[in-house]
Specification:
The protein is of the alpha+beta class. It has 4 helices and 6 strands; from the N terminus they run H-H-E-H-H-E-E-E-E-E. The protein has helices at 3-13, 20-30, 40-49, 56-68, and strands spanning 37-38, 73-77, 81-85, 93-96, 101-104, 130-133. The protein has a 3-stranded antiparallel sheet with strand order 1-3-2. A hairpin with a 4-residue loop joins strand 4 (93-96) and strand 5. Helix 1 packs across helix 2 (20-30) and helix 3 packs across helix 4 (56-68). The longest helix is centred in the middle third of the chain and has 13 residues, at 56-68.
Length: 136
């Protein structure tokens, strides 16, 4: 399947209108069929390198729309750095502190036996596992 078709199909399955900017950013995110972790800044840079005229604000707004539509998941590291993951199933991540990079960790090696109970009037909606690494 061609890059344009794959990205348009990805948008279509979420019911998002395929605007020029959305298609261009979707092509960079999923056009090659590979999963990736991006920041708004890295996606903006990749778009500019690809010759796409898109503002950083548009990238942020588009990433938010993709998250709201269930196409991406947002992973926050350090409470300030946000990554957007094209793989939306539950899975753990490695955060490479020295590089500021996020990658998938092997889910089959993670074992969580029990979570604390949620406080009264609340329920657990999701558990994010980010394993921080630094080079030795």
């Amino acid at each position: 399947m061609m890059r344009h078709e794959l990205s348009s199909e990805w948008l279509g399955k979420a019911g998002l209108r395929p605007t020029r900017q959305r298609v261009a950013l979707a092509r960079l995110l999923v056009g090659d069929g590979q999963h990736r972790h991006v920041t708004a800044e890295s996606l903006h840079s990749a778009a500019r390198d690809a010759g796409e005229a898109v503002s950083l604000a548009t990238v942020y707004n588009t990433l938010r729309a993709f998250c709201d539509a269930g196409l991406l998941q947002e992973i926050t590291v350090d409470g300030t750095k946000c990554y957007f993951d094209t793989r939306t199933d539950d899975h753990p991540h490695f955060y490479w502190e020295d590089e500021g990079r996020l990658s998938d960790a092997p889910a089959d090696e993670l074992e969580i036996r029990r979570l604390p109970g949620a406080p009264h009037g609340a329920e657990i909606s999701k558990v994010d596992v980010v394993i921080r690494l630094r080079k030795t």
